[in-house]
Amino acid sequence: MGRCPDCGSWGTVEEIAVLTPISAAASGRAVAPSSPAVPISSIDPGHTTHFRTGVAELDRVLGGGLVPGSVTLLAGDPGVGKSTLLLEVVHRWAQSGRRALYLSGEESAGQVRLRAERTGCTHDEVFLAAESDLQTALGHIEQVRPTLIVVDSVQTMSTAEVDGVPGGVTQVRAVTTALTMAAKTTGVAIILVGHVTKDGAIAGPRSLEHLVDVVLHFEGDRSSALRMVRGVKNRFGGADEVGCFLLHDNGIEGVADPSGLFLDQRPAPVSGTSVTVTLDGKRPMIGEVQALVTAASTGIPRRAVSGIDSARAAMITAVLDKRARMRIAQNDVYLSTVGGMRLTDPSSDLAVALAIASAHRDIPMPTTVVAIGEVGLAGDLRRVTGMERRLAEAARLGFTCAVVPPGVKDAPAGLRVLSADDISGALRVLQTFADNGSRHVEG
Protein backbone atom coordinates (compact mmCIF):
# COMPACT_ATOMS: atom_id res chain seq x y z
CA MET A 1 0.00 0.00 0.00
CA GLY A 2 1.67 3.21 -1.12
CA ARG A 3 -0.86 5.70 0.23
CA CYS A 4 -2.09 5.98 3.82
CA PRO A 5 -5.90 5.59 3.92
CA ASP A 6 -6.18 7.94 6.95
CA CYS A 7 -4.09 11.02 6.13
CA GLY A 8 -3.71 10.50 2.37
CA SER A 9 0.10 10.86 2.41
CA TRP A 10 2.28 8.77 0.09
CA GLY A 11 5.12 6.56 1.28
CA THR A 12 4.27 6.79 4.99
CA VAL A 13 2.93 3.27 5.62
CA GLU A 14 5.44 0.99 7.37
CA GLU A 15 5.35 -2.77 7.75
CA ILE A 16 5.56 -4.06 11.33
CA ALA A 17 6.15 -7.74 12.06
CA VAL A 18 3.68 -9.24 14.55
CA LEU A 19 4.98 -11.93 16.91
CA THR A 20 2.50 -14.77 17.43
CA PRO A 21 2.10 -16.14 20.98
CA ILE A 22 3.43 -19.67 21.40
CA SER A 23 4.35 -22.25 24.04
CA ALA A 24 2.68 -21.91 27.44
CA ALA A 25 0.35 -19.03 26.57
CA ALA A 26 -1.08 -20.90 23.56
CA SER A 27 -1.34 -24.30 25.23
CA GLY A 28 -2.51 -23.07 28.62
CA ARG A 29 0.29 -24.86 30.52
CA ALA A 30 1.72 -23.24 33.67
CA VAL A 31 5.42 -22.44 33.80
CA ALA A 32 7.43 -22.29 37.02
CA PRO A 33 8.41 -18.65 37.76
CA SER A 34 12.09 -17.79 37.89
CA SER A 35 11.56 -15.83 41.15
CA PRO A 36 8.70 -16.39 43.62
CA ALA A 37 6.18 -13.69 44.50
CA VAL A 38 6.94 -12.02 47.84
CA PRO A 39 4.93 -9.71 50.15
CA ILE A 40 5.13 -6.11 49.06
CA SER A 41 6.19 -5.06 52.56
CA SER A 42 9.35 -7.20 52.30
CA ILE A 43 10.69 -5.38 49.21
CA ASP A 44 13.54 -2.99 49.94
CA PRO A 45 12.45 0.55 48.95
CA GLY A 46 16.07 1.67 48.79
CA HIS A 47 16.28 0.62 45.13
CA THR A 48 14.17 3.64 44.14
CA THR A 49 16.24 6.26 45.95
CA HIS A 50 16.47 9.59 44.15
CA PHE A 51 19.92 10.96 43.36
CA ARG A 52 20.00 14.71 42.87
CA THR A 53 21.22 16.01 39.54
CA GLY A 54 22.51 19.27 41.00
CA VAL A 55 19.94 21.33 39.05
CA ALA A 56 17.41 22.22 41.75
CA GLU A 57 14.52 23.12 39.44
CA LEU A 58 14.86 19.86 37.50
CA ASP A 59 15.06 17.88 40.74
CA ARG A 60 11.80 19.52 41.82
CA VAL A 61 10.01 18.21 38.71
CA LEU A 62 11.61 14.76 38.98
CA GLY A 63 10.43 14.39 42.58
CA GLY A 64 13.89 14.69 44.14
CA GLY A 65 16.24 13.55 41.39
CA LEU A 66 16.99 10.65 39.06
CA VAL A 67 16.34 7.06 40.12
CA PRO A 68 18.94 4.42 39.13
CA GLY A 69 17.64 2.29 36.28
CA SER A 70 15.01 4.85 35.27
CA VAL A 71 14.40 6.18 31.76
CA THR A 72 13.37 9.84 31.40
CA LEU A 73 12.03 11.38 28.18
CA LEU A 74 12.60 15.13 27.74
CA ALA A 75 10.68 16.55 24.77
CA GLY A 76 10.54 20.08 23.42
CA ASP A 77 10.58 22.32 20.37
CA PRO A 78 13.81 22.75 18.35
CA GLY A 79 16.09 25.40 19.82
CA VAL A 80 14.23 25.66 23.13
CA GLY A 81 17.36 24.68 25.09
CA LYS A 82 17.12 20.93 25.71
CA SER A 83 20.78 20.21 24.91
CA THR A 84 21.93 23.21 26.97
CA LEU A 85 19.96 22.00 29.98
CA LEU A 86 21.25 18.44 29.71
CA LEU A 87 24.84 19.62 29.36
CA GLU A 88 24.33 21.46 32.63
CA VAL A 89 22.90 18.27 34.16
CA VAL A 90 25.82 16.03 33.16
CA HIS A 91 28.28 18.73 34.29
CA ARG A 92 26.72 18.96 37.75
CA TRP A 93 26.51 15.16 37.85
CA ALA A 94 30.25 14.89 37.15
CA GLN A 95 31.07 17.56 39.72
CA SER A 96 29.53 15.36 42.41
CA GLY A 97 32.03 12.59 41.61
CA ARG A 98 29.86 10.51 39.26
CA ARG A 99 30.53 9.62 35.63
CA ALA A 100 28.20 10.66 32.80
CA LEU A 101 28.05 9.72 29.11
CA TYR A 102 26.59 12.10 26.49
CA LEU A 103 25.60 10.37 23.24
CA SER A 104 24.92 12.87 20.47
CA GLY A 105 23.24 11.66 17.31
CA GLU A 106 22.42 15.11 15.92
CA GLU A 107 25.69 17.02 16.36
CA SER A 108 29.36 16.19 16.02
CA ALA A 109 31.62 15.95 19.04
CA GLY A 110 33.21 19.26 18.11
CA GLN A 111 29.85 21.07 18.07
CA VAL A 112 28.92 19.71 21.49
CA ARG A 113 32.36 20.70 22.82
CA LEU A 114 31.89 24.27 21.56
CA ARG A 115 28.57 24.53 23.39
CA ALA A 116 30.13 23.06 26.52
CA GLU A 117 32.94 25.64 26.36
CA ARG A 118 30.46 28.48 25.92
CA THR A 119 28.31 27.38 28.83
CA GLY A 120 31.20 26.32 31.10
CA CYS A 121 30.16 22.66 31.24
CA THR A 122 33.44 20.83 30.64
CA HIS A 123 34.54 18.13 33.07
CA ASP A 124 36.84 15.12 32.83
CA GLU A 125 34.12 12.79 34.09
CA VAL A 126 31.78 13.77 31.25
CA PHE A 127 32.39 11.42 28.30
CA LEU A 128 31.18 12.41 24.85
CA ALA A 129 30.45 10.26 21.79
CA ALA A 130 28.84 11.31 18.51
CA GLU A 131 27.00 8.11 17.66
CA SER A 132 23.67 7.24 16.06
CA ASP A 133 23.99 3.42 15.88
CA LEU A 134 22.33 1.61 18.78
CA GLN A 135 24.75 -1.31 18.97
CA THR A 136 27.77 1.00 18.99
CA ALA A 137 26.10 3.16 21.64
CA LEU A 138 25.61 0.09 23.83
CA GLY A 139 29.29 -0.67 23.34
CA HIS A 140 30.17 2.82 24.60
CA ILE A 141 28.02 2.22 27.67
CA GLU A 142 29.85 -1.05 28.48
CA GLN A 143 33.23 0.60 27.97
CA VAL A 144 32.64 3.85 29.89
CA ARG A 145 30.40 2.37 32.62
CA PRO A 146 28.64 5.63 33.53
CA THR A 147 25.89 6.22 36.09
CA LEU A 148 24.04 8.69 33.85
CA ILE A 149 23.48 8.54 30.09
CA VAL A 150 22.03 11.29 27.88
CA VAL A 151 20.83 10.29 24.39
CA ASP A 152 20.34 13.30 22.12
CA SER A 153 18.07 12.32 20.51
CA VAL A 154 16.15 9.05 20.43
CA GLN A 155 14.73 9.83 16.95
CA THR A 156 18.25 9.91 15.45
CA MET A 157 19.27 6.52 16.87
CA SER A 158 18.81 3.44 14.68
CA THR A 159 19.48 -0.26 14.75
CA ALA A 160 20.21 -2.69 11.93
CA GLU A 161 18.18 -5.46 13.60
CA VAL A 162 14.81 -4.00 12.50
CA ASP A 163 13.62 -2.40 9.30
CA GLY A 164 12.56 1.19 8.86
CA VAL A 165 14.17 4.60 8.60
CA PRO A 166 15.65 6.43 11.63
CA GLY A 167 12.87 8.26 13.42
CA GLY A 168 10.20 5.89 12.14
CA VAL A 169 7.73 4.07 14.35
CA THR A 170 9.54 0.74 14.24
CA GLN A 171 13.02 2.18 14.80
CA VAL A 172 12.01 4.46 17.68
CA ARG A 173 10.19 1.64 19.45
CA ALA A 174 13.10 -0.78 19.03
CA VAL A 175 15.72 1.74 20.17
CA THR A 176 13.70 2.81 23.22
CA THR A 177 13.03 -0.80 24.20
CA ALA A 178 16.73 -1.68 23.99
CA LEU A 179 17.82 1.36 25.99
CA THR A 180 15.14 0.70 28.61
CA MET A 181 16.33 -2.88 28.95
CA ALA A 182 19.92 -1.64 29.34
CA ALA A 183 18.85 0.78 32.06
CA LYS A 184 16.95 -1.88 34.02
CA THR A 185 19.75 -4.48 33.83
CA THR A 186 22.69 -2.16 34.59
CA GLY A 187 20.99 0.27 36.98
CA VAL A 188 22.12 3.34 35.04
CA ALA A 189 19.79 6.32 34.67
CA ILE A 190 19.06 7.34 31.07
CA ILE A 191 17.66 10.64 29.78
CA LEU A 192 16.26 10.54 26.23
CA VAL A 193 15.75 13.72 24.20
CA GLY A 194 12.59 13.55 22.09
CA HIS A 195 11.40 15.60 19.16
CA VAL A 196 7.90 17.09 18.99
CA THR A 197 5.53 17.56 16.09
CA LYS A 198 4.12 20.88 14.91
CA ASP A 199 1.14 20.28 17.20
CA GLY A 200 3.40 19.96 20.25
CA ALA A 201 2.97 16.18 20.68
CA ILE A 202 5.96 13.88 21.13
CA ALA A 203 7.07 12.50 17.76
CA GLY A 204 7.07 8.75 17.24
CA PRO A 205 4.72 6.02 18.46
CA ARG A 206 2.40 6.68 21.37
CA SER A 207 3.89 3.64 23.10
CA LEU A 208 7.10 5.62 23.53
CA GLU A 209 5.57 7.45 26.49
CA HIS A 210 4.42 4.15 27.99
CA LEU A 211 7.88 2.55 27.78
CA VAL A 212 9.69 5.26 29.76
CA ASP A 213 9.32 6.02 33.46
CA VAL A 214 9.23 9.83 33.34
CA VAL A 215 7.96 12.19 30.62
CA LEU A 216 8.95 15.87 30.77
CA HIS A 217 7.97 18.69 28.43
CA PHE A 218 10.41 21.57 27.91
CA GLU A 219 8.44 24.68 26.96
CA GLY A 220 9.37 28.24 26.10
CA ASP A 221 8.76 31.15 23.76
CA ARG A 222 11.50 32.13 21.33
CA SER A 223 10.90 35.82 22.16
CA SER A 224 11.40 35.26 25.92
CA ALA A 225 14.25 33.85 27.99
CA LEU A 226 11.83 32.02 30.29
CA ARG A 227 11.77 28.24 29.98
CA MET A 228 9.61 25.73 31.87
CA VAL A 229 10.04 22.00 32.43
CA ARG A 230 6.66 20.45 33.07
CA GLY A 231 6.12 16.92 34.39
CA VAL A 232 3.60 14.84 32.42
CA LYS A 233 4.30 11.36 33.77
CA ASN A 234 6.39 10.27 36.75
CA ARG A 235 6.45 6.79 38.23
CA PHE A 236 8.61 7.95 41.14
CA GLY A 237 6.80 11.11 42.22
CA GLY A 238 4.14 13.66 41.41
CA ALA A 239 3.43 14.48 37.78
CA ASP A 240 2.11 18.00 38.34
CA GLU A 241 5.32 19.90 39.12
CA VAL A 242 6.93 22.62 37.03
CA GLY A 243 10.46 24.00 37.00
CA CYS A 244 11.41 27.49 35.79
CA PHE A 245 14.64 28.42 34.00
CA LEU A 246 16.18 31.40 32.27
CA LEU A 247 18.10 30.69 29.05
CA HIS A 248 21.09 32.96 28.41
CA ASP A 249 23.85 33.03 25.81
CA ASN A 250 26.27 31.53 28.31
CA GLY A 251 24.01 28.81 29.69
CA ILE A 252 20.83 28.16 31.60
CA GLU A 253 19.96 28.87 35.22
CA GLY A 254 17.11 27.85 37.47
CA VAL A 255 14.69 30.40 38.89
CA ALA A 256 13.59 29.43 42.39
CA ASP A 257 11.18 32.38 42.73
CA PRO A 258 9.72 33.19 39.30
CA SER A 259 6.92 35.46 40.56
CA GLY A 260 8.98 38.60 39.99
CA LEU A 261 9.29 37.75 36.28
CA PHE A 262 5.56 38.17 35.77
CA LEU A 263 5.12 41.52 37.50
CA ASP A 264 5.54 44.92 35.94
CA GLN A 265 7.53 46.93 38.47
CA ARG A 266 6.24 50.50 38.61
CA PRO A 267 6.45 53.16 41.37
CA ALA A 268 2.77 54.17 41.23
CA PRO A 269 -0.45 52.26 40.47
CA VAL A 270 -1.85 52.48 36.94
CA SER A 271 -5.42 51.89 35.85
CA GLY A 272 -6.11 48.73 33.88
CA THR A 273 -3.81 46.44 35.89
CA SER A 274 -4.62 43.66 38.33
CA VAL A 275 -2.55 40.97 40.07
CA THR A 276 -3.55 37.36 40.69
CA VAL A 277 -1.99 34.15 42.04
CA THR A 278 -2.14 31.11 39.77
CA LEU A 279 -1.16 27.51 40.45
CA ASP A 280 1.07 25.82 37.91
CA GLY A 281 1.15 22.26 39.15
CA LYS A 282 1.75 22.69 42.87
CA ARG A 283 3.72 25.91 42.53
CA PRO A 284 1.92 29.23 43.20
CA MET A 285 3.04 32.10 40.96
CA ILE A 286 2.12 35.75 40.86
CA GLY A 287 0.84 37.05 37.54
CA GLU A 288 -0.25 40.47 36.36
CA VAL A 289 -3.08 41.20 33.93
CA GLN A 290 -3.12 44.41 31.89
CA ALA A 291 -6.23 45.73 30.14
CA LEU A 292 -7.01 48.60 27.80
CA VAL A 293 -10.56 49.66 26.91
CA THR A 294 -11.02 52.20 24.12
CA ALA A 295 -13.75 53.35 21.78
CA ALA A 296 -14.20 51.04 18.81
CA SER A 297 -12.33 52.34 15.79
CA THR A 298 -14.60 50.42 13.42
CA GLY A 299 -18.17 49.21 13.52
CA ILE A 300 -17.12 45.80 14.91
CA PRO A 301 -15.58 45.87 18.45
CA ARG A 302 -12.19 44.20 18.67
CA ARG A 303 -11.03 41.70 21.29
CA ALA A 304 -7.27 41.18 21.33
CA VAL A 305 -5.72 38.94 24.01
CA SER A 306 -2.19 37.69 24.74
CA GLY A 307 -1.46 35.07 27.38
CA ILE A 308 -5.14 34.65 28.28
CA ASP A 309 -7.72 32.29 26.83
CA SER A 310 -9.72 34.31 24.30
CA ALA A 311 -12.96 32.45 25.03
CA ARG A 312 -12.78 33.19 28.77
CA ALA A 313 -11.87 36.83 28.08
CA ALA A 314 -14.95 37.21 25.86
CA MET A 315 -17.10 35.55 28.51
CA ILE A 316 -15.87 37.86 31.27
CA THR A 317 -16.47 40.90 29.06
CA ALA A 318 -20.04 39.75 28.44
CA VAL A 319 -20.62 39.17 32.18
CA LEU A 320 -19.38 42.69 32.99
CA ASP A 321 -21.69 44.14 30.34
CA LYS A 322 -24.77 42.15 31.39
CA ARG A 323 -24.45 41.60 35.14
CA ALA A 324 -22.48 44.67 36.20
CA ARG A 325 -24.15 47.12 33.79
CA MET A 326 -20.80 48.18 32.33
CA ARG A 327 -21.43 49.25 28.74
CA ILE A 328 -18.27 47.89 27.19
CA ALA A 329 -19.77 45.59 24.54
CA GLN A 330 -19.19 48.24 21.88
CA ASN A 331 -15.64 49.05 23.00
CA ASP A 332 -12.33 47.60 21.88
CA VAL A 333 -10.84 45.49 24.68
CA TYR A 334 -7.14 44.56 24.79
CA LEU A 335 -5.81 42.08 27.37
CA SER A 336 -2.28 40.92 28.02
CA THR A 337 -0.08 39.32 30.67
CA VAL A 338 3.37 40.42 31.79
CA GLY A 339 6.52 38.43 31.01
CA GLY A 340 4.94 36.01 28.55
CA MET A 341 2.95 34.22 31.26
CA ARG A 342 -0.05 32.14 30.21
CA LEU A 343 -3.07 32.28 32.53
CA THR A 344 -5.20 29.22 31.82
CA ASP A 345 -6.39 28.73 35.39
CA PRO A 346 -10.00 29.92 36.01
CA SER A 347 -8.73 31.55 39.21
CA SER A 348 -7.54 34.50 37.10
CA ASP A 349 -11.10 35.40 36.01
CA LEU A 350 -11.60 37.91 38.81
CA ALA A 351 -8.27 39.62 38.07
CA VAL A 352 -9.21 39.91 34.39
CA ALA A 353 -12.59 41.38 35.30
CA LEU A 354 -11.09 43.93 37.71
CA ALA A 355 -8.43 44.91 35.16
CA ILE A 356 -11.10 45.57 32.51
CA ALA A 357 -13.23 47.50 35.00
CA SER A 358 -10.22 49.47 36.19
CA ALA A 359 -9.35 50.43 32.61
CA HIS A 360 -12.97 51.33 31.76
CA ARG A 361 -13.50 53.51 34.84
CA ASP A 362 -9.89 54.77 34.91
CA ILE A 363 -9.53 53.69 38.56
CA PRO A 364 -6.11 52.27 39.48
CA MET A 365 -5.96 49.33 41.85
CA PRO A 366 -3.37 49.52 44.64
CA THR A 367 -0.18 47.58 43.93
CA THR A 368 -0.59 45.63 47.19
CA VAL A 369 -3.89 43.96 46.20
CA VAL A 370 -4.38 40.54 44.58
CA ALA A 371 -7.61 39.14 43.11
CA ILE A 372 -8.34 35.40 43.10
CA GLY A 373 -11.57 33.73 41.99
CA GLU A 374 -13.60 32.22 39.18
CA VAL A 375 -16.39 34.22 37.53
CA GLY A 376 -19.61 32.43 36.55
CA LEU A 377 -22.03 33.37 33.81
CA ALA A 378 -24.51 34.52 36.45
CA GLY A 379 -21.93 36.96 37.75
CA ASP A 380 -21.23 34.92 40.89
CA LEU A 381 -17.74 34.38 42.27
CA ARG A 382 -16.56 30.83 43.02
CA ARG A 383 -13.73 29.54 45.13
CA VAL A 384 -10.81 27.76 43.48
CA THR A 385 -8.53 24.99 44.69
CA GLY A 386 -5.39 25.73 46.67
CA MET A 387 -6.68 29.02 48.05
CA GLU A 388 -4.58 28.74 51.23
CA ARG A 389 -1.42 28.16 49.21
CA ARG A 390 -2.19 31.11 46.94
CA LEU A 391 -2.84 33.48 49.85
CA ALA A 392 0.35 32.35 51.59
CA GLU A 393 2.37 33.13 48.46
CA ALA A 394 0.75 36.58 48.21
CA ALA A 395 1.55 37.33 51.85
CA ARG A 396 5.13 36.15 51.38
CA LEU A 397 5.66 38.60 48.53
CA GLY A 398 4.36 41.55 50.52
CA PHE A 399 0.74 41.89 49.37
CA THR A 400 -1.54 43.23 52.10
CA CYS A 401 -5.04 42.70 50.68
CA ALA A 402 -6.82 39.97 48.70
CA VAL A 403 -10.20 40.15 46.95
CA VAL A 404 -11.64 36.63 46.99
CA PRO A 405 -14.99 34.81 46.81
CA PRO A 406 -16.84 34.13 50.09
CA GLY A 407 -15.89 31.20 52.28
CA VAL A 408 -12.21 31.94 52.96
CA LYS A 409 -11.75 31.64 56.74
CA ASP A 410 -8.03 31.41 57.41
CA ALA A 411 -5.77 34.16 56.09
CA PRO A 412 -2.02 34.50 56.58
CA ALA A 413 -0.73 37.09 59.01
CA GLY A 414 -0.50 40.53 57.47
CA LEU A 415 -2.96 39.79 54.67
CA ARG A 416 -6.47 41.23 54.80
CA VAL A 417 -9.19 39.29 52.98
CA LEU A 418 -12.10 41.13 51.33
CA SER A 419 -14.92 38.80 50.26
CA ALA A 420 -17.32 39.50 47.41
CA ASP A 421 -20.39 37.42 46.54
CA ASP A 422 -20.59 38.44 42.89
CA ILE A 423 -18.90 40.60 40.28
CA SER A 424 -20.88 43.66 41.39
CA GLY A 425 -19.54 43.25 44.92
CA ALA A 426 -15.99 43.03 43.58
CA LEU A 427 -16.54 46.26 41.63
CA ARG A 428 -17.77 47.95 44.80
CA VAL A 429 -14.48 46.97 46.40
CA LEU A 430 -12.69 48.56 43.43
CA GLN A 431 -14.71 51.75 43.95
CA THR A 432 -13.78 51.70 47.64
CA PHE A 433 -10.14 51.68 46.64
CA ALA A 434 -10.78 54.73 44.49
CA ASP A 435 -12.62 56.59 47.27
CA ASN A 436 -10.23 55.82 50.13
CA GLY A 437 -6.95 55.13 48.31
CA SER A 438 -4.40 52.76 49.79
CA ARG A 439 -5.41 53.69 53.37
CA HIS A 440 -8.26 51.20 53.12
CA VAL A 441 -5.88 48.49 52.07
CA GLU A 442 -3.24 49.19 54.68
CA GLY A 443 -5.83 49.68 57.44
Write up what this structure looks like.
The chain has helices at residues 23-27, 56-62, 82-95, 109-119, 134-144, 169-186, 207-211, 310-322, 349-361, 387-396, 423-436, 438-442, and strands at residues 71-76, 100-104, 126-130, 148-152, 189-194, 214-220, 226-234, 242-248, 251-254, 273-280, 283-295, 303-306, 331-337, 369-371, 374-375, 381-382, 401-404, 416-419. The protein has 12 helices and 18 strands. The protein has a 9-stranded mixed β-sheet, with helices on both faces. The chain has a 4-stranded mixed β-sheet with strand order 10-11-13-12. It has a 3-stranded parallel β-sheet with strand order 14-17-18. Helix 8 (310-322) links the parallel strand 12 (303-306) and strand 13. It starts with 22 loop residues before the first helix and ends with a helix. It folds into 2 domains: 46-256, 3-Layer(aba) Sandwich (Rossmann fold); 261-442, Ribosomal Protein S5, domain 2. It has 443 residues and is α/β, with parallel strands linked by helices. 28% of the residues lie in helices and 23% in strands. Residues 21-25 and 438-443 have low confidence and may be disordered.
Summary keywords:
alpha/beta, Ribosomal Protein S5, domain 2, 4-stranded mixed β-sheet, 9-stranded mixed β-sheet, 443 residues, 28% helix, elongated, DNA repair protein RadA, 2 domains
How many domains is the backbone divided into?
Answer: 2
Largest sheet: 9 strands, mixed
Query: Into which percentage range does the β-strand content fall?
Result: 15-25%
Strand order of the largest sheet: 3-2-4-5-1-6-7-8-9
What is the CATH topology descriptor of the largest domain?
A: Rossmann fold
CATH superfamily of the largest domain: P-loop containing nucleotide triphosphate hydrolases
Order of helices and strands: HHEHEHEHEHEHEEEEEEEHEHEEEHEEHH
